[in-house]
Amino acid sequence: MRIPDGVRKTVNVVLCLAAVVAIGWSGREIWAVWNGHRQIDAACGGLVPAGRVLALSEAGGTITHRALDEDSFDPVTGIPHDCEIFSTEAGARHGSGTGARWFFTGEMGVLPADRPRIADTPYENLVDALGRPTYPPQPLGGDVAGSVTSSSVTVQLPCEEGKAKDTPVRALWARAALKTPGGSQVGGHDRDILAETAVLTANNLADRLGCADRLPDAPDAVPALPEGPVPADRAGGTCAWYGKTGLADRSPYPDQVVESRTDDRVWDERCGLVLGAGRARGVYLTEGDEHRRLSSPDVPGQWFVSLHTYSGPLAENIRLTGTDDDESPEPATPGKAGRSTEEPIWWASSVCDGRPQVHTMTLGGFGYARLVASRTEDVFRAYVEDVTTRRHCTDVVLPGHSTFRADWGTS
């Protein structure tokens, strides 16, 4: 059938216009992707995989980054400490008045680090202070030394042969984090991308520093984090040992745990013991008259026992308390054991697979700490025994019996 000339001309015009629109749309898309890569590479020193960041759920629209300054760079490696990425998609989702919102952070560094890791303080929050769900960090798994939080993934990689500006490097780490409102947990799609991003960033940094090793691919389908705390008799991970002691059935000991799965590759493993609202209230009513420093607990998880095991290069730079510039820090020295003179914090040490380990215990809430200090020696010893047995450690050094008393700081 012959198409009339007038109709054919109209069809051709429509097709041409559609082609122009398609070209224009695809051109804008190409520019947006190119600009996103450029912004992320500029912010993160070319180390964070831009394609993975752009696959995050809030990476749509226009991508921008925080401008870097002199303080943005690690003096040892010359790479950015962290990079902050913004998008108009995130701004639209969260009602940003400026049109863009900070949605992604990439961080990286080397070990041993100049800045020490500070042990938990008596004012730490092991559970959400507002009563919202608490998601204890979990190991990444998949033969990768990694840790997953509700909104981030951190990985670590040995780097015995690497150098940063002629300074030997023993290990490196990388973190990929998504900004979430109110401590909510990211979805499975974003969690998987954060894991890939952290692993690829670590491997890119290993290339830059000349490290011999590389991390394997991140595991598929990183599981969601289970909520905590849970009753101590249900503990099955890093706090399983506590449920077996029977102490959770007795006041004034904690009756709940905040734990993770066990994984010897994790460089900072925690077991948190907390008093639920009912147990805390009962302790206050029965002990408050005798111990006047014991104020009424009004925050979830205000009274707790926090136990950590730090391993490898991280364990060599642990401090029991933060200090001002004119004060001497209190180190938790591998090969030794003791207690802080300022706060209710104890430490022990061991050697596992040739690597130093430092084990710490912090009592939460000064009134509660003074009440239970003399009763927590068995708790700490049981924790250290569990970790060192599970990790096949040797050279275990524990604080002496006389250190478990309430005479730290000002009386």
* Strand content bin: 25-35%
Q: Any low-confidence stretches, pLDDT <50, length ≥5?
A: 13-25
Please tell me what the overall shape is.
Answer: globular
Q: Give me the secondary-structure category.
A: alpha+beta
Number of strands: 17
Helical segment count: 8
Taking all Cα atoms into account, the compactness measure Rg is: 26 Å
Question: Quick check: average pLDDT?
Answer: 88
What percent of the residues sit in helical stretches (DSSP H or I)? Answer: 25-40%
What is the H-and-E element order? Answer: HHEEHEEEEEEHEHEEHEEEEEHHE
**Main pleated-sheet profile:** 8 strands, antiparallel
Distance between the termini: 102 Å
Can you offer a commentary on this structure?
By secondary structure, the protein is α+β, with helices and mostly antiparallel strands. 27% of the residues lie in helices and 25% in strands. The chain is built from eight helices and 17 strands. The strands form three sheets. Strands 9, 10, 11, 12, 14, 15, 16 and 17 form an eight-stranded antiparallel sheet that branches. The protein has a seven-stranded antiparallel sheet with strand order 1-2-3-8-7-6-5. Strand 14 and strand 15 (345-352) form a beta hairpin. The protein is globular.
List strands and helices in order, with pairings.
Elements: H1 5-44, H2 50-53, E1 63-65, E2 82-87, H3 88-94, E3 101-111, E4 117-118, E5 138-141, E6 144-148, E7 152-164, E8 167-178, H4 188-209, E9 230-231, H5 240-245, E10 256-258, E11 268-274, H6 277-287, E12 304-311, E13 318-319, E14 338-339, E15 345-352, E16 355-364, H7 366-372, H8 377-390, E17 393-397
Parallel strand pairs: 4-13
Antiparallel strand pairs: 1-2, 2-3, 3-8, 5-6, 6-7, 7-8, 9-10, 10-11, 11-12, 12-16, 14-15, 15-16, 15-17
